[in-house]
Amino acid sequence: MTDRRMANDKSSGILSAQPLESPSDDGSLKAIRKPKWYRSTFWNAFILGICNFLAPGIWGAMNSLGGGGQQSPSLVNSANALTFCLMVLTCFFSSVVVRWVGVKWALIIGTLGYCPYAAGLYVNNRYGDGWFVLFGAALCGLSAGIFWSVEAALALAYPEPHNQGRFLGFWLSFRLGGQIVGGAINLGVNVNNNKAGSVSYHVFEAFIALQALAPFAGLLLSPPGKVQRTDGLPVRLSIGNSITYELKAMSKLFFSKQFLLIVPLIAQAVYAESVFFTFQALWFSVRARALGSFLSGVVAVTLGNILGKYLDHTKFSLKSRSRGAFFTILGLQGAWWVWATVLVTEFNKTNPTYDWVDQGFGKGFALFLFWVAGFQLNYMFLYFVVGNLAETQEEVIRICSLLRGTESAVQAVSYGLGSVSVMARTGSIYLNFGLWAISLYPAWLVISKIGVTLGDKKLAREEAVQERVLDNHSPDQQAEK
Protein backbone atom coordinates (compact mmCIF):
# COMPACT_ATOMS: atom_id res chain seq x y z
CA MET A 1 0.00 0.00 0.00
CA THR A 2 2.80 2.42 0.91
CA ASP A 3 4.37 2.38 -2.52
CA ARG A 4 1.17 3.82 -3.94
CA ARG A 5 0.82 6.67 -1.47
CA MET A 6 1.53 10.20 -2.51
CA ALA A 7 4.86 11.71 -1.61
CA ASN A 8 4.80 13.36 1.77
CA ASP A 9 7.04 15.05 4.23
CA LYS A 10 6.82 13.00 7.42
CA SER A 11 9.15 15.29 9.31
CA SER A 12 6.84 18.27 8.93
CA GLY A 13 3.59 16.34 9.14
CA ILE A 14 2.29 18.08 6.02
CA LEU A 15 1.47 16.45 2.71
CA SER A 16 3.48 17.73 -0.24
CA ALA A 17 1.86 20.30 -2.49
CA GLN A 18 2.09 18.18 -5.64
CA PRO A 19 1.46 14.41 -5.42
CA LEU A 20 3.15 12.04 -7.80
CA GLU A 21 0.19 9.96 -8.93
CA SER A 22 -3.46 9.18 -8.29
CA PRO A 23 -5.71 6.20 -9.05
CA SER A 24 -7.58 6.09 -12.35
CA ASP A 25 -10.87 4.35 -12.99
CA ASP A 26 -9.21 1.10 -14.04
CA GLY A 27 -7.02 0.87 -10.96
CA SER A 28 -3.84 2.10 -12.63
CA LEU A 29 -1.99 5.22 -11.57
CA LYS A 30 -1.93 8.40 -13.60
CA ALA A 31 -0.59 11.93 -13.32
CA ILE A 32 -2.74 14.49 -11.53
CA ARG A 33 -4.56 16.90 -13.82
CA LYS A 34 -4.60 20.57 -13.02
CA PRO A 35 -7.91 21.37 -11.26
CA LYS A 36 -10.52 23.35 -13.15
CA TRP A 37 -10.62 26.83 -11.65
CA TYR A 38 -14.31 26.62 -10.75
CA ARG A 39 -13.74 23.31 -8.91
CA SER A 40 -10.51 24.26 -7.16
CA THR A 41 -10.16 24.65 -3.41
CA PHE A 42 -9.25 28.32 -3.90
CA TRP A 43 -12.48 28.98 -5.79
CA ASN A 44 -14.50 27.22 -3.11
CA ALA A 45 -12.68 29.18 -0.40
CA PHE A 46 -13.68 32.32 -2.30
CA ILE A 47 -17.35 31.29 -2.57
CA LEU A 48 -17.43 30.21 1.07
CA GLY A 49 -15.92 33.58 1.91
CA ILE A 50 -18.54 35.45 -0.14
CA CYS A 51 -21.31 33.58 1.71
CA ASN A 52 -19.58 34.45 4.97
CA PHE A 53 -19.31 38.09 3.90
CA LEU A 54 -22.98 38.39 2.91
CA ALA A 55 -24.46 36.54 5.89
CA PRO A 56 -22.51 36.57 9.21
CA GLY A 57 -20.12 39.20 7.85
CA ILE A 58 -22.87 41.79 7.39
CA TRP A 59 -24.40 40.65 10.69
CA GLY A 60 -21.02 41.40 12.25
CA ALA A 61 -20.97 44.75 10.46
CA MET A 62 -24.26 45.68 12.14
CA ASN A 63 -22.93 44.51 15.49
CA SER A 64 -19.71 46.45 15.00
CA LEU A 65 -21.73 49.66 14.82
CA GLY A 66 -22.17 49.20 18.55
CA GLY A 67 -25.47 47.83 19.82
CA GLY A 68 -26.60 47.06 16.27
CA GLY A 69 -26.37 50.76 15.45
CA GLN A 70 -28.97 51.70 18.06
CA GLN A 71 -28.66 54.40 20.69
CA SER A 72 -29.02 51.85 23.50
CA PRO A 73 -27.49 48.37 23.14
CA SER A 74 -29.97 46.63 25.48
CA LEU A 75 -32.60 45.58 22.86
CA VAL A 76 -30.01 44.29 20.40
CA ASN A 77 -28.14 42.44 23.15
CA SER A 78 -31.42 40.73 24.10
CA ALA A 79 -32.09 39.87 20.44
CA ASN A 80 -28.59 38.45 20.01
CA ALA A 81 -29.05 36.36 23.15
CA LEU A 82 -32.20 34.89 21.57
CA THR A 83 -30.33 34.23 18.31
CA PHE A 84 -27.54 32.35 20.03
CA CYS A 85 -29.92 30.33 22.22
CA LEU A 86 -31.61 29.00 19.09
CA MET A 87 -28.25 28.44 17.42
CA VAL A 88 -27.27 26.04 20.19
CA LEU A 89 -30.20 23.87 19.13
CA THR A 90 -29.61 24.08 15.38
CA CYS A 91 -25.86 23.49 15.74
CA PHE A 92 -26.54 20.25 17.60
CA PHE A 93 -28.82 19.01 14.82
CA SER A 94 -26.62 20.23 11.95
CA SER A 95 -25.18 16.80 11.19
CA VAL A 96 -28.76 15.52 10.83
CA VAL A 97 -29.55 18.32 8.34
CA VAL A 98 -26.38 17.48 6.40
CA ARG A 99 -27.50 13.86 6.24
CA TRP A 100 -30.79 14.94 4.66
CA VAL A 101 -29.71 17.58 2.15
CA GLY A 102 -25.88 17.51 1.95
CA VAL A 103 -23.41 20.22 2.92
CA LYS A 104 -24.06 22.57 -0.03
CA TRP A 105 -27.81 22.89 0.52
CA ALA A 106 -27.36 22.97 4.29
CA LEU A 107 -25.10 26.00 3.79
CA ILE A 108 -27.71 27.70 1.57
CA ILE A 109 -30.47 27.03 4.11
CA GLY A 110 -28.20 28.52 6.75
CA THR A 111 -28.05 31.88 4.94
CA LEU A 112 -31.82 32.45 4.86
CA GLY A 113 -32.39 33.91 8.33
CA TYR A 114 -29.87 36.75 8.27
CA CYS A 115 -31.79 39.17 6.05
CA PRO A 116 -34.96 39.26 8.26
CA TYR A 117 -32.80 40.30 11.21
CA ALA A 118 -31.34 43.21 9.24
CA ALA A 119 -34.89 44.17 8.27
CA GLY A 120 -35.85 44.13 11.95
CA LEU A 121 -33.05 46.54 12.81
CA TYR A 122 -34.17 48.81 9.95
CA VAL A 123 -37.79 48.87 11.18
CA ASN A 124 -36.71 49.57 14.75
CA ASN A 125 -34.26 52.26 13.70
CA ARG A 126 -36.77 54.07 11.48
CA TYR A 127 -40.12 53.45 13.19
CA GLY A 128 -39.22 52.39 16.72
CA ASP A 129 -40.91 48.95 16.54
CA GLY A 130 -38.75 46.56 18.57
CA TRP A 131 -40.79 43.37 18.04
CA PHE A 132 -39.43 42.85 14.51
CA VAL A 133 -35.87 42.83 15.87
CA LEU A 134 -36.74 39.88 18.12
CA PHE A 135 -38.64 38.09 15.33
CA GLY A 136 -35.73 38.53 12.93
CA ALA A 137 -33.31 37.39 15.62
CA ALA A 138 -35.32 34.17 16.06
CA LEU A 139 -35.27 33.43 12.31
CA CYS A 140 -31.57 34.20 12.23
CA GLY A 141 -30.89 31.79 15.09
CA LEU A 142 -32.81 28.95 13.45
CA SER A 143 -30.73 29.15 10.27
CA ALA A 144 -27.40 30.53 11.45
CA GLY A 145 -26.53 27.51 13.58
CA ILE A 146 -26.66 25.33 10.47
CA PHE A 147 -24.60 27.85 8.50
CA TRP A 148 -21.94 28.13 11.20
CA SER A 149 -21.53 24.38 11.56
CA VAL A 150 -21.40 23.60 7.85
CA GLU A 151 -19.06 26.42 6.82
CA ALA A 152 -16.61 25.37 9.53
CA ALA A 153 -16.66 21.76 8.33
CA LEU A 154 -16.11 22.91 4.73
CA ALA A 155 -13.17 25.06 5.80
CA LEU A 156 -11.48 22.11 7.51
CA ALA A 157 -12.28 19.41 4.93
CA TYR A 158 -11.93 21.11 1.51
CA PRO A 159 -8.33 22.42 1.45
CA GLU A 160 -5.15 20.45 0.90
CA PRO A 161 -3.18 19.98 4.17
CA HIS A 162 -0.47 22.43 3.15
CA ASN A 163 -3.13 25.10 2.50
CA GLN A 164 -5.18 24.64 5.69
CA GLY A 165 -4.03 27.77 7.53
CA ARG A 166 -4.18 30.00 4.45
CA PHE A 167 -7.66 28.66 3.64
CA LEU A 168 -8.84 29.53 7.16
CA GLY A 169 -7.32 33.01 7.00
CA PHE A 170 -8.70 33.72 3.52
CA TRP A 171 -12.20 32.48 4.42
CA LEU A 172 -12.43 34.33 7.74
CA SER A 173 -11.15 37.53 6.11
CA PHE A 174 -14.48 37.77 4.31
CA ARG A 175 -16.37 37.80 7.61
CA LEU A 176 -14.33 40.81 8.58
CA GLY A 177 -14.77 42.15 5.06
CA GLY A 178 -18.44 42.58 5.95
CA GLN A 179 -17.41 44.59 8.95
CA ILE A 180 -15.02 46.71 6.87
CA VAL A 181 -17.62 47.44 4.16
CA GLY A 182 -20.31 48.08 6.76
CA GLY A 183 -18.02 50.42 8.64
CA ALA A 184 -17.15 52.29 5.44
CA ILE A 185 -20.85 52.70 4.54
CA ASN A 186 -21.69 53.85 8.04
CA LEU A 187 -18.72 56.22 8.18
CA GLY A 188 -19.74 57.82 4.88
CA VAL A 189 -23.33 58.34 6.07
CA ASN A 190 -22.49 59.50 9.60
CA VAL A 191 -19.15 61.27 9.16
CA ASN A 192 -20.55 64.52 10.61
CA ASN A 193 -22.34 62.90 13.56
CA ASN A 194 -20.02 63.44 16.52
CA LYS A 195 -22.67 62.69 19.16
CA ALA A 196 -23.88 59.53 20.83
CA GLY A 197 -27.03 57.98 19.32
CA SER A 198 -28.26 55.66 16.58
CA VAL A 199 -26.96 55.47 13.03
CA SER A 200 -28.94 56.47 9.92
CA TYR A 201 -31.56 53.94 8.73
CA HIS A 202 -30.13 54.22 5.20
CA VAL A 203 -27.20 52.11 6.42
CA PHE A 204 -29.58 49.19 7.02
CA GLU A 205 -31.05 49.46 3.52
CA ALA A 206 -27.63 48.60 2.11
CA PHE A 207 -27.22 45.74 4.58
CA ILE A 208 -30.60 44.20 3.67
CA ALA A 209 -29.74 44.25 -0.04
CA LEU A 210 -26.40 42.55 0.55
CA GLN A 211 -27.75 39.82 2.83
CA ALA A 212 -30.50 38.96 0.34
CA LEU A 213 -27.76 37.84 -2.09
CA ALA A 214 -26.26 35.22 0.26
CA PRO A 215 -28.39 32.19 -0.81
CA PHE A 216 -27.60 32.84 -4.47
CA ALA A 217 -23.87 32.96 -3.74
CA GLY A 218 -24.18 29.57 -2.06
CA LEU A 219 -25.37 28.05 -5.34
CA LEU A 220 -21.86 28.58 -6.77
CA LEU A 221 -20.23 26.29 -4.18
CA SER A 222 -19.00 22.93 -5.48
CA PRO A 223 -20.40 19.92 -3.60
CA PRO A 224 -17.67 17.77 -1.99
CA GLY A 225 -17.69 15.13 -4.73
CA LYS A 226 -16.91 17.71 -7.42
CA VAL A 227 -14.07 19.56 -5.66
CA GLN A 228 -10.73 19.12 -7.44
CA ARG A 229 -7.64 19.41 -5.24
CA THR A 230 -4.03 19.79 -6.29
CA ASP A 231 -3.15 16.54 -4.49
CA GLY A 232 -5.76 14.62 -6.50
CA LEU A 233 -7.61 13.34 -3.43
CA PRO A 234 -11.42 13.47 -3.33
CA VAL A 235 -13.21 15.35 -0.57
CA ARG A 236 -15.35 13.10 1.60
CA LEU A 237 -17.79 15.19 3.61
CA SER A 238 -21.11 13.48 4.07
CA ILE A 239 -23.15 11.75 6.75
CA GLY A 240 -24.59 8.32 6.00
CA ASN A 241 -25.52 7.17 9.49
CA SER A 242 -28.95 7.13 11.08
CA ILE A 243 -30.28 10.14 12.97
CA THR A 244 -30.10 8.24 16.26
CA TYR A 245 -26.48 7.29 15.60
CA GLU A 246 -25.56 10.90 14.82
CA LEU A 247 -27.16 12.28 17.97
CA LYS A 248 -25.38 9.67 20.10
CA ALA A 249 -22.08 10.37 18.35
CA MET A 250 -22.49 14.11 18.91
CA SER A 251 -23.19 13.59 22.62
CA LYS A 252 -20.25 11.21 23.02
CA LEU A 253 -17.87 13.65 21.32
CA PHE A 254 -19.05 16.59 23.42
CA PHE A 255 -18.39 14.70 26.67
CA SER A 256 -14.99 13.45 25.54
CA LYS A 257 -12.10 14.59 27.72
CA GLN A 258 -10.30 16.54 25.00
CA PHE A 259 -13.35 18.55 23.94
CA LEU A 260 -14.41 19.37 27.51
CA LEU A 261 -10.90 20.65 28.22
CA ILE A 262 -11.16 23.23 25.42
CA VAL A 263 -14.66 24.44 26.36
CA PRO A 264 -13.19 27.17 28.66
CA LEU A 265 -10.87 28.21 25.80
CA ILE A 266 -13.88 28.58 23.50
CA ALA A 267 -15.79 30.47 26.19
CA GLN A 268 -13.11 33.09 26.89
CA ALA A 269 -12.66 33.70 23.17
CA VAL A 270 -16.27 34.21 22.07
CA TYR A 271 -17.70 35.83 25.21
CA ALA A 272 -15.63 38.86 24.24
CA GLU A 273 -17.69 39.77 21.15
CA SER A 274 -20.61 41.29 23.04
CA VAL A 275 -18.16 42.85 25.49
CA PHE A 276 -16.21 44.93 22.99
CA PHE A 277 -19.19 45.88 20.82
CA THR A 278 -21.11 47.02 23.92
CA PHE A 279 -17.98 48.89 25.07
CA GLN A 280 -17.94 50.67 21.71
CA ALA A 281 -21.64 51.58 21.89
CA LEU A 282 -21.42 52.96 25.42
CA TRP A 283 -18.36 55.16 25.24
CA PHE A 284 -18.01 56.46 21.65
CA SER A 285 -19.80 58.79 19.23
CA VAL A 286 -21.59 57.49 16.14
CA ARG A 287 -18.81 58.39 13.72
CA ALA A 288 -16.13 57.05 16.07
CA ARG A 289 -18.02 53.75 16.18
CA ALA A 290 -18.11 53.70 12.37
CA LEU A 291 -14.38 54.36 12.20
CA GLY A 292 -13.78 51.59 14.73
CA SER A 293 -15.85 49.15 12.70
CA PHE A 294 -13.80 49.90 9.59
CA LEU A 295 -10.29 50.00 11.07
CA SER A 296 -10.70 47.03 13.40
CA GLY A 297 -11.68 44.87 10.44
CA VAL A 298 -8.56 45.90 8.53
CA VAL A 299 -6.29 45.16 11.50
CA ALA A 300 -7.96 41.81 12.18
CA VAL A 301 -7.77 40.67 8.53
CA THR A 302 -4.07 41.51 8.40
CA LEU A 303 -3.14 39.71 11.62
CA GLY A 304 -5.43 36.76 10.86
CA ASN A 305 -3.74 36.07 7.53
CA ILE A 306 -0.32 36.33 9.15
CA LEU A 307 -1.43 33.69 11.66
CA GLY A 308 -2.73 31.49 8.83
CA LYS A 309 0.63 31.56 7.07
CA TYR A 310 2.41 30.79 10.33
CA LEU A 311 0.20 27.75 11.00
CA ASP A 312 1.07 26.42 7.51
CA HIS A 313 4.81 27.12 7.87
CA THR A 314 6.43 23.68 7.64
CA LYS A 315 9.81 25.04 8.71
CA PHE A 316 8.46 24.73 12.24
CA SER A 317 7.11 21.47 13.63
CA LEU A 318 3.40 21.08 14.39
CA LYS A 319 4.31 21.06 18.09
CA SER A 320 6.16 24.39 17.81
CA ARG A 321 3.42 26.03 15.76
CA SER A 322 0.64 25.04 18.13
CA ARG A 323 2.55 26.12 21.24
CA GLY A 324 3.83 29.34 19.71
CA ALA A 325 0.33 30.37 18.65
CA PHE A 326 -1.10 29.45 22.05
CA PHE A 327 1.38 31.50 24.08
CA THR A 328 1.23 34.50 21.75
CA ILE A 329 -2.55 34.71 21.37
CA LEU A 330 -3.45 33.96 24.99
CA GLY A 331 -0.62 36.16 26.30
CA LEU A 332 -1.85 39.16 24.30
CA GLN A 333 -5.43 38.41 25.33
CA GLY A 334 -4.44 38.65 28.98
CA ALA A 335 -2.82 42.03 28.34
CA TRP A 336 -6.02 43.34 26.72
CA TRP A 337 -8.08 42.31 29.76
CA VAL A 338 -5.74 44.10 32.17
CA TRP A 339 -5.96 47.22 30.00
CA ALA A 340 -9.76 46.95 29.74
CA THR A 341 -10.24 46.48 33.48
CA VAL A 342 -8.39 49.71 34.20
CA LEU A 343 -10.26 51.68 31.52
CA VAL A 344 -13.84 50.63 32.28
CA THR A 345 -13.32 51.23 35.99
CA GLU A 346 -12.38 54.80 35.07
CA PHE A 347 -15.14 55.21 32.44
CA ASN A 348 -17.81 54.00 34.85
CA LYS A 349 -16.96 56.95 37.09
CA THR A 350 -16.49 59.66 34.44
CA ASN A 351 -19.18 58.48 31.93
CA PRO A 352 -17.49 59.89 28.75
CA THR A 353 -18.62 59.88 25.10
CA TYR A 354 -15.44 59.97 23.05
CA ASP A 355 -15.22 61.43 19.56
CA TRP A 356 -12.05 61.23 17.51
CA VAL A 357 -11.26 64.91 18.20
CA ASP A 358 -11.40 64.44 21.98
CA GLN A 359 -8.39 64.11 24.25
CA GLY A 360 -8.18 60.58 25.63
CA PHE A 361 -9.93 59.05 22.61
CA GLY A 362 -6.97 56.87 21.65
CA LYS A 363 -6.66 54.81 24.82
CA GLY A 364 -10.12 53.27 24.49
CA PHE A 365 -10.18 53.19 20.69
CA ALA A 366 -6.88 51.32 20.44
CA LEU A 367 -8.15 48.76 22.93
CA PHE A 368 -11.20 48.15 20.73
CA LEU A 369 -8.97 47.55 17.68
CA PHE A 370 -6.83 45.04 19.57
CA TRP A 371 -9.91 43.32 20.98
CA VAL A 372 -11.38 42.71 17.51
CA ALA A 373 -8.02 41.52 16.18
CA GLY A 374 -7.66 39.20 19.18
CA PHE A 375 -11.10 37.77 18.52
CA GLN A 376 -10.04 36.87 14.96
CA LEU A 377 -6.82 35.25 16.16
CA ASN A 378 -8.66 33.25 18.82
CA TYR A 379 -11.22 32.15 16.24
CA MET A 380 -8.61 30.87 13.81
CA PHE A 381 -6.70 29.12 16.58
CA LEU A 382 -9.85 27.31 17.73
CA TYR A 383 -10.32 25.88 14.22
CA PHE A 384 -6.69 24.81 14.20
CA VAL A 385 -7.17 23.02 17.54
CA VAL A 386 -10.40 21.18 16.69
CA GLY A 387 -8.95 20.23 13.31
CA ASN A 388 -6.27 18.38 15.24
CA LEU A 389 -8.84 16.56 17.38
CA ALA A 390 -11.17 15.14 14.69
CA GLU A 391 -10.31 11.54 13.77
CA THR A 392 -12.44 11.17 10.61
CA GLN A 393 -14.10 13.40 8.02
CA GLU A 394 -17.49 12.60 9.56
CA GLU A 395 -16.13 13.71 12.91
CA VAL A 396 -15.07 17.02 11.34
CA ILE A 397 -18.76 17.85 10.81
CA ARG A 398 -19.61 16.81 14.36
CA ILE A 399 -16.79 18.64 16.12
CA CYS A 400 -17.43 21.81 14.10
CA SER A 401 -21.10 21.64 15.07
CA LEU A 402 -20.12 21.25 18.72
CA LEU A 403 -17.60 24.08 18.48
CA ARG A 404 -20.21 26.38 16.98
CA GLY A 405 -22.90 25.19 19.40
CA THR A 406 -20.64 25.89 22.37
CA GLU A 407 -19.81 29.31 20.94
CA SER A 408 -23.51 30.03 20.58
CA ALA A 409 -24.29 28.99 24.16
CA VAL A 410 -21.55 31.23 25.53
CA GLN A 411 -22.59 34.16 23.34
CA ALA A 412 -26.23 33.73 24.37
CA VAL A 413 -25.11 34.20 27.98
CA SER A 414 -22.77 37.03 27.01
CA TYR A 415 -25.37 39.06 25.10
CA GLY A 416 -28.01 38.27 27.71
CA LEU A 417 -25.84 39.62 30.51
CA GLY A 418 -24.87 42.54 28.26
CA SER A 419 -28.48 43.72 28.33
CA VAL A 420 -28.09 44.33 32.09
CA SER A 421 -26.62 47.79 32.70
CA VAL A 422 -24.04 46.91 35.35
CA MET A 423 -22.74 43.98 33.30
CA ALA A 424 -22.60 46.07 30.12
CA ARG A 425 -20.59 48.82 31.79
CA THR A 426 -18.09 46.82 33.86
CA GLY A 427 -19.22 43.36 34.96
CA SER A 428 -18.81 41.49 31.68
CA ILE A 429 -15.24 42.69 31.30
CA TYR A 430 -14.33 41.49 34.78
CA LEU A 431 -16.06 38.17 34.07
CA ASN A 432 -14.29 37.69 30.73
CA PHE A 433 -10.95 38.38 32.41
CA GLY A 434 -11.76 35.54 34.81
CA LEU A 435 -12.76 33.20 31.98
CA TRP A 436 -9.43 33.87 30.29
CA ALA A 437 -7.52 32.91 33.45
CA ILE A 438 -9.59 29.76 34.02
CA SER A 439 -9.08 28.56 30.43
CA LEU A 440 -5.28 28.52 30.42
CA TYR A 441 -4.46 25.27 32.24
CA PRO A 442 -7.14 22.99 30.71
CA ALA A 443 -6.34 24.31 27.23
CA TRP A 444 -2.64 23.66 27.78
CA LEU A 445 -3.39 20.00 28.60
CA VAL A 446 -4.67 19.65 25.02
CA ILE A 447 -2.32 22.05 23.20
CA SER A 448 0.76 20.40 24.73
CA LYS A 449 -0.23 17.09 23.09
CA ILE A 450 -0.66 18.45 19.55
CA GLY A 451 2.29 17.27 17.50
CA VAL A 452 3.33 14.91 20.34
CA THR A 453 0.82 12.22 21.37
CA LEU A 454 -1.78 13.88 19.14
CA GLY A 455 -0.29 13.62 15.66
CA ASP A 456 -1.31 15.63 12.62
CA LYS A 457 -4.98 14.61 12.42
CA LYS A 458 -5.48 16.47 9.14
CA LEU A 459 -2.69 14.38 7.62
CA ALA A 460 -4.12 11.17 9.10
CA ARG A 461 -7.59 11.89 7.71
CA GLU A 462 -6.17 12.62 4.25
CA GLU A 463 -4.12 9.42 4.23
CA ALA A 464 -7.18 7.41 5.30
CA VAL A 465 -9.15 8.84 2.38
CA GLN A 466 -6.31 8.04 -0.02
CA GLU A 467 -6.04 4.46 1.19
CA ARG A 468 -9.78 3.95 0.74
CA VAL A 469 -9.57 5.34 -2.79
CA LEU A 470 -6.63 3.10 -3.64
CA ASP A 471 -8.33 0.06 -2.12
CA ASN A 472 -11.51 0.74 -4.10
CA HIS A 473 -9.48 0.91 -7.33
CA SER A 474 -7.22 -2.07 -6.64
CA PRO A 475 -7.33 -4.98 -9.15
CA ASP A 476 -8.86 -7.29 -6.53
CA GLN A 477 -11.68 -4.85 -5.83
CA GLN A 478 -12.24 -4.29 -9.54
CA ALA A 479 -12.43 -8.07 -10.09
CA GLU A 480 -15.03 -8.43 -7.33
CA LYS A 481 -17.13 -5.74 -8.99
From TrEMBL:
Protein name as catalogued: MFS general substrate transporter
Cited Pfam families: UNC-93
Membrane topology classification: Multi-pass membrane protein
Keywords from the UniProt entry: Membrane, Transmembrane, Transmembrane helix
Subcellular location: Membrane
Region (Disordered): 1-27
One GO cellular component term: membrane
Biased composition (Polar residues): 9-21
Membrane spanning stretches: 42-61, 81-98, 105-124, 130-156, 168-189, 201-221, 259-284, 290-312, 324-345, 365-386, 429-447
